[in-house]
C-alpha cells in the first residue's frame, strides 16, 4: 500500500510540474543605459563567504549554521533590492540584480522552512515546490521565483547560460556561485558556471558511448536548441574528448544542497 501511494504521489508530482516556457513580462523590459548607479551586493557576498562551501563537484550551503543575525542581514539585503526600481538601472546592472535576488530568495526560503530534505517539499499539497509562490513585491508588482526566471531573465536576456546561475537549492542544480553577480563580472561568471556544470558528473556523465545529462537540458531544450546545437554548446566547455550525443538519458537530484 505504501509503495502504491508513493508511486501515485510521484505521478501527481510529474503531472503538476512541467518546466515553464519563457513568457516575457513586458513591464520589466525598460532600462536606463545612461544611469551609472551600481547596486550593492555586499551583504549577499558576506553571506556566501561565510556559509557556502566549495567542493570539487559541488557547492554546499551550511543552512543549519546560519545565525539569526545573518538571517536578518539576508532579509535586509532582499528588502534593499525590492525597495528600488530595477528598471532605472542599466541592463547589465539589472541582470546581476535579478540573479542575486533569485538566489537570495531561494536561500531565505530554505532557512525559513529548515530543516527539510528537499525544496520540492515546499508549497501546497498539489504543487511541486514553491516556485509559483509570490514572495516579493517590487513597484507594486508581486513576483515569484518563476516570474524572475521565466518571465524576466530568460525572455529578456535569451542566454541559455542563465540556467547555470539560478540555483534551486538542490544537489542536481548548477552550483550556487561563490561570487555575487555584478554588472562587471556577470559575463565571466556565466562562463565559469557553464564550465563547472558541464564538466561535473551532475551535468554530463559519460559511460562508454552513453551520455547521462542533467534534466535541465531536457526541461529547457528550447533554450539549448537542437541536439546538434546542444552538443556544440557542451563541447564548447567540455575538457577532454568531445561529447557525442547519440545515446542520451536524463537525471536530476532534488536533495537539498546542504552540508554540516
SSE series: HHEEHHEEHHEEHHHE
The overall strand count is: 7
Work out the oligomeric state of the chains in this entry. Answer: single chain
Share of helical residues: 40-55%
**Strand order, sheet with most strands:** 5-6-7
**Ranges with pLDDT <50 over ≥5 residues?**
1-16
Sum up the overall morphology in one term.
globular
Radius of gyration: 18 Å
Q: Biggest sheet, in brief? A: 3 strands, mixed
In terms of DSSP E residues, the strand content is 5-15%
**Distance between the ends:** 35 Å
Q: How many H/I helical runs?
A: 9
Q: Would you tell me the overall average pLDDT?
A: 93
* Structure class: alpha+beta
Domain DUF547: 87-198
Signal peptide: 1-18
Protein name: DUF547 domain-containing protein
InterPro entries: DUF547
Q: Which terms summarize this structure?
A:
single chain, 260 residues, alpha+beta, 3-stranded mixed β-sheet, two-stranded antiparallel sheet, 9 helices, globular, disordered N terminus
Secondary structure: elements and pairs:
Layout: H1 2-16, H2 42-51, E1 52-54, E2 59-61, H3 68-82, H4 91-113, E3 134-138, E4 141-144, H5 145-157, H6 186-198, E5 204-207, E6 210-214, H7 216-219, H8 221-224, H9 227-237, E7 247-251
Parallel strand pairs: 6-7
Antiparallel strand pairs: 1-2, 3-4, 5-6
Keywords: Signal
Signal peptide: 1-18
Organism: Photobacterium lipolyticum
What does this protein look like?
The protein is α+β, with helices and mostly antiparallel strands and 260 residues long. It contains 9 helices and 7 strands. β3 and β4 form a beta hairpin. α4 runs antiparallel to α5. The radius of gyration is 18 Å and the shape is globular. The N terminus is likely disordered. Keywords: Signal. It comes from Photobacterium lipolyticum. This is DUF547 domain-containing protein.
